[in-house]
């Protein structure tokens, strides 16, 4: 069986590390028998190149699945470098986003944030793609608009991906959604919040707690807006990671 290597962005925040490990465990739980391991593109260990060497030595084939929300430097450079280094053994899957299931999770986080917490809604990737996509308009009464708070990137592909997720979220919640970035290119979150009138909710488009999530929460509080929790170790994210893994396997089979 072809191994799955989850490639994550490291963090010095122990809360974020716990979420990344929990998401990796959920991926393994959803696909019994699939060897799943976790490597990092920066900050934490094991570093992705050393993990790839170890996994390939034990299992001839592996797919790297970026636990990252869009194409950026780490996806296009770090992950692709491993696929190019071992082209007959390593395949690179696409990042988690954009994908309609992310809009569904973000909408659920909005409802949780406005309600002050509560049970998290779970489902499958197919739920977000089918005709039965849930509408959230009635449960977001009082919210005039939403700002999608993203990490930001200097890569235009990442910015385009965030815009696509914002459009998909707008369709789900029936509210206008703009993108505000914490770093990199793109309009800064603080500036977007400052010019957005009415009651605003901030959808935190980040995987896990950490510096960026704390920054989003702080800027939202300054603007008098509610900010959601990060996406977290949601089972739908794990299902999406496996979806990317399966896509990469199909692509590799077509190129043999």
UniProtKB/TrEMBL annotation:
Domain of life: Bacteria
Family matches, as CDD domains: CbiX_SirB_N
Keyword terms, alphabetized: Lyase, Metal-binding
UniProt GO molecular function: lyase activity; metal ion binding
InterPro entries cross-referenced by the UniProt entry: CbiX-like, Sirohydro_Cobaltochel/CbiX
Keyword Coiled coil set for record: no
Record's protein name: Sirohydrochlorin ferrochelatase
Organism of provenance: Kribbella italica
């Amino acid at each position: 069986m072809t191994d799955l290597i989850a490639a994550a962005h490291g963090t010095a925040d122990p809360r974020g590390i716990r979420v990344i490990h929990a998401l990796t465990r959920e991926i393994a739980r959803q696909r019994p028998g699939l060897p799943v391991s976790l490597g990092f593109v920066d900050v934490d260990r094991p570093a992705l190149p050393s993990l790839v060497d170890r996994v390939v030595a034990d299992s001839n084939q592996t797919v790297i699945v970026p636990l990252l929300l869009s194409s950026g430097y780490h996806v296009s450079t770090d992950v692709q470098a491993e696929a190019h280094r071992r082209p007959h053994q390593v395949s690179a899957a696409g990042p988690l986003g954009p994908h309609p299931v992310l809009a569904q999770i973000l909408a659920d986080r909005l409802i949780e944030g406005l309600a002050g917490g509560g049970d998290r809604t779970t489902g499958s990737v197919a739920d977000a793609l089918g005709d039965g996509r849930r509408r959230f308009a009635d449960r977001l009464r009082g919210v005039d608009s939403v700002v999608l708070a993203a990490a930001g990137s200097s890569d235009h592909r990442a910015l385009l991906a965030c815009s696509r997720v914002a459009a998909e979220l707008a369709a789900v919640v029936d509210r206008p959604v703009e993108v505000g970035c914490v770093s990199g290119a793109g309009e800064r979150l603080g500036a977007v919040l400052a010019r957005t009138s009415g009651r605003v909710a901030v959808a935190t488009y980040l995987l896990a707690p950490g510096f960026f999530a704390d920054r989003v929460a702080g800027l939202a509080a300054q603007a008098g807006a509610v900010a959601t929790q990060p996406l977290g170790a949601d089972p739908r994210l794990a299902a999406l990671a496996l979806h990317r893994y399966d896509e990469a396997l199909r692509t590799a089979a077509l190129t043999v």
